[in-house]
Structure formats: structure tokens, C-alpha cells
Design a protein that fits this description.
By secondary structure, this protein is an alpha+beta fold. The protein has a single domain, classed as Nuclear Transport Factor 2, Chain: A, CATH 3.10.450. Helix content is 23%, strand content 46%. Strands 4-3-8-7-6-5 form a 6-stranded mixed β-sheet, with helices on one face. A two-stranded antiparallel sheet has the order 1-2.
């Protein structure tokens, strides 16, 4: 089940005729299809991305480098189960299944937290993975 706050002046941000929640959903389509240029275009030029196991990624060049070279995932598919939006914040819960560049497979649950700027571009993204650590 997907939940989204009702439309209001602080819950929707326009970018090229679409809203920020649509852009979050589009992000997963673009990353799964390998369309790095368009997915990086959803981020503000000075955006910051926090992901476990990596130093903070800041700006388009860091994001481009990550998605084209550093990311250990080769191919896969995200399934978005929940999207919650409040103001400029959008939370996502979902599942990912795919292949890593070393040939192994992975399936995991994730949570992403996006902050959008006044024009709906991603200013910040934080990712968390549900994996056994302790």
C-alpha cells in the first residue's frame, strides 16, 4: 500500500511539469534502466547523497562517478512499497533484487529519505539497508 500526503502548497514541488514524488518514483526506474544522465539530472547541482559504506557524495560529478563506476551493483530492480511525503521530505521503503559486479546476487530491503529543494530537485538523499549486522 502506498501512502502520500494530500496535495498542498508544501507537499508538491514542480519540476518539468511533474511533482517531486513522481520524480522519486522515476529515480528508481532510471537507476534500474541504467540511465545515469537522467537520474543525475533529478539531483540539484550541489546535492548530497549519504550511503552506507561510501563517503558522502556531493554534486553531479560525484553522483556520476558513483553510478557509472563505483556502485557495486551491476543490474537489478527496485520495488517501491511505500512512499510518504511531507513538505520537502519524501520517505521510501522498498526491496531490491539484482546482481553485483562480482557476479553474486543480492536481495534486500531499503529505506531512502529524499529532501527536495524549492524546484523539486533532490537536495539530499540518505539510504539505509536492512541487513543483519549484529
Amino acid at each position: 500500500m502506498n501512502f502520500r500526503q494530500p496535495e498542498g502548497p508544501m507537499t508538491r514541488h514542480a519540476v518539468n511539469g511533474t511533482d517531486a514524488v513522481s520524480n522519486v518514483r522515476r529515480y528508481y526506474e532510471l537507476v534500474d534502466s541504467g540511465n545515469v544522465d537522467d537520474l543525475v539530472g533529478l539531483f540539484a547541482p550541489d546535492a548530497e547523497y549519504q550511503r552506507p559504506g561510501y563517503p558522502p557524495l556531493v554534486g553531479h560529478s560525484d553522483l556520476q562517478q558513483f553510478y557509472q563506476q563505483d556502485r557495486i551493483i551491476d543490474v537489478g530492480q527496485h520495488v517501491v512499497n511505500t512512499v510518504v511525503a511531507q513538505g520537502s521530505h519524501i520517505a521510501v521503503a522498498g526491496e531490491f533484487s539484482g546482481f553485483l559486479k562480482n557476479g553474486s546476487t543480492t536481495t534486500l530491503r531499503f529505506a531512502d529519505f529524499f529532501t527536495v529543494n524549492s524546484v523539486g530537485l533532490f537536495a539530499r538523499r540518505e539510504t539505509f539497508f536492512f541487513t543483519p549486522l549484529v
